[in-house]
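request received
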Amino acid sequence: MSLSNNTIERICRIYGYLEYLEKNNIEYASSKEFAGIVGTTDYSVRKDISSLGLTGFSRRGYAVKLLKDQLGEKLKLSRTIKTCIVGLGKLGTAILDYESFRDDGFNMVAGFDSSINKIERIHTPIEVFPVGQLEDIVKQRSIELGIIAVPPVAAQDIADKLIKGGVKGILNFSPVRIAVPEEIVLHNMDFTAALRFVAARF
Amino acid sequence: MSLSNNTIERICRIYGYLEYLEKNNIEYASSKEFAGIVGTTDYSVRKDISSLGLTGFSRRGYAVKLLKDQLGEKLKLSRTIKTCIVGLGKLGTAILDYESFRDDGFNMVAGFDSSINKIERIHTPIEVFPVGQLEDIVKQRSIELGIIAVPPVAAQDIADKLIKGGVKGILNFSPVRIAVPEEIVLHNMDFTAALRFVAARF
DNA sequence: TTAGTTTAGTGAAAATATTCACTAAATAAT
DNA sequence: ATTATTTAGTGAATATTTTCACTAAACTAA
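response:
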């Protein structure tokens, strides 16, 4: 029962929508509605959900709260995931401030930067450290997920340190390829590639 | 000869890598090397490139400069694409400042925000306007691509205005679903969904 | 020259993902 | 009650994508 990346991606987006529905006290939603949200068909949505062994209700659709909890359980999203960010430039601080992460099950427990000045100047409730302490803090605090928002030249080195510290996954905002061992989950968010992906389909 | 989204996405990432190689005066690169960069196989890379009618050289690989130019031509990435950003909060200004866009063929020609205060305070070489002028400026300046970095509640309204102004594509950083007509290219960059996508695969 | 190596190109096979067509359940309407 | 409608569940068909297996070209080394 291994899930395809496509399925996981769709489920993650549906999960976000379920949170929204739950907040608005909506109790049921149909596969068709989800399909609209993630840009696919109702068949696919039902296949995705059923591939996780989860079910809905005839003529009512899926129970929002129940499905959210079950998906969270299945995808290990219900627990809070300790996260850190490396690189406190504009993008890094923007992400650091992205208030909804905590609601969304990600607990930002540390920030890192190579500039002591920047660390001193920064104004955030999250503890910030010089990058020299990265590996230790990641270990001490059992941080599972690292976000990289450093300049391209530093990205690989930071990734190596995060991995040595023991993170299981990396979200990479720098526009360069990072090499990671097989067991580490890597996902790239390359703004320029994204803009090109849009422009190429005009 | 319609290209799949997967192919386009891979090609966009290869294109970025070709720019890097070109800057470093590297003349040839193999399908295997590209495969490493985009996380696929050499077969797939060759299929992708050949599906665009482009070819490499036996025993040498692909000619960096030539391939970059040809891909740029095929995917319409070689011309400069006029772009604007809406929402000048932390994330918006971080993106606005992302210096490499210009190099990468995207010309940021305007920024918009709903807060007059923010517009007055902001310090950037890019012209900024109140959001009331969005549609007009987009029309006047023939802006083709709009980046949305506004709070969720405003996202759909901004998208509608961008589309009325005549953009062909939208890159949406807000974590909500936006409805757009078929002919408009939409791509979402949802940070929370991305974090979940990583965590779900731990 | 010849043999060996590297790398692209590509049709065919295999794997994967999506869509379809149908069933069943629940509810509403008449 | 009965019929119609909506919506999930799912095996099968279809479509798509990826991988494989092989060929050809270009170059190197002996």
